[in-house]
UniProtKB/TrEMBL annotation:
Keywords: Hydrolase, Membrane, Transmembrane, Transmembrane helix. This is Class C sortase. It holds the Pfam family Sortase. It comes from Leuconostoc pseudomesenteroides. It comes from the Bacteria. The chain crosses the membrane at residues 254-275. One of its GO terms (molecular function) is hydrolase activity. InterPro entries: Sortase, Sortase_C, Sortase_dom-sf.
């Protein structure tokens, strides 16, 4: 009887470990993403005013040239590695460098409603999309001004990280925030669409608007279509900026991990006490 109970308890412990792994891994990933985002924001903050202005000017020139060329964006989830390499070459980034260093960041993305803070990488390689969100090649860099349409791509359902898993919870009127080399930008969601992968009409630049669209696969785990959540540039008061910055999304995952550890220790203790009370046979 004692051996049987020990086996059952061991099985329960293993099952508990398997079930708790996604929560622990997600908490670790959330911390890593927030740390990377904070590091990028600190680097931008330490840029000289002249350097920053020059970078913004260059980004706006890039966006203007991109809009004039009228190059269509491609679905990020069906691009071949060869096609991705060609697109990313336009940003002077090689796949080799991406695989080693993830490439440069272009911004950080904050979605308070989803408790999400993540770095935005310059590209959509699998390496980048497993560590954060990627800026789709042939779309605008996220800066102020008109004639801008940045498209940020993220996975759903990754075991190690939530990222855009809950993007479907966003509604019209919700806000998300982008912080890059320009001033902090706030976007109010004005359009939510589900389209086929080859339908990229809603990713085009409007010369009179400044948009950022968040894109992921849908339905969840089927991935036959694309969910497009578009935000239009809106005002971003200093008070709101401070409030958004104070939001710490790592707290909830860490609390879950603490809860899991406490439950695990309690189960182990209870199991050991129970086994000791069973007479040896």
């Amino acid at each position: 009887m004692r051996k049987i109970m020990m086996m059952l308890i061991a099985i329960l412990f293993i099952a508990f470990g398997v079930l708790s792994y996604p929560f622990i891994r997600n908490a670790i990933a959330t911390q890593e993403q927030q740390r990377e985002a904070k590091r990028f924001e600190q680097q931008v903050a330490h840029l000289s005013s002249n350097k920053r202005q020059a970078m913004v000017k260059e980004a706006k020139a890039h966006n203007k040239a991109l809009a004039s060329a009228k190059i269509n964006a491609k679905d990020p989830f069906t691009l071949t590695q060869k096609t991705r390499a060609k697109l990313l070459a336009k940003y002077d980034i090689s796949e080799t460098v991406l695989n080693k260093q993830l490439g440069p960041l272009v911004a950080t993305l904050r979605i308070p409603k989803l408790d999400l803070v993540t770095p935005v990488f310059n590209g959509v390689s699998e390496v980048q999309l497993s560590h954060g969100v990627g800026l789709l090649p042939n779309t605008s860099l996220p800066v102020s001004g008109k004639g801008v349409h940045a498209v940020m791509t993220g996975h759903r359902g990754l075991l190690q990280s939530a990222l855009f898993t809950h993007l479907n919870r966003l509604k019209k009127g919700d806000h998300f925030y982008v912080e890059g080399i320009d001033r902090p930008l706030a976007y109010r969601i004005d359009q939510i669409k589900v389209v086929k992968p080859d339908d990229t009409r809603d990713l085009m630049v409007d010369k009179d608007q400044n948009y950022t669209t968040l894109i992921t696969c849908t339905p969840f785990l089927q991935n036959t279509h694309r969910l497009l959540v578009r935000g239009v540039l809106t005002t971003y008061p200093k008070k709101t900026q401070a409030k958004v910055k104070q939001n710490n999304p790592t707290t909830k995952p860490l609390l879950k991990v603490v809860g899991i550890v406490v439950i695990g220790i309690s189960l182990i203790s209870a199991g050991l006490i129970f086994i000791k009370k069973i007479p040896k046979t």
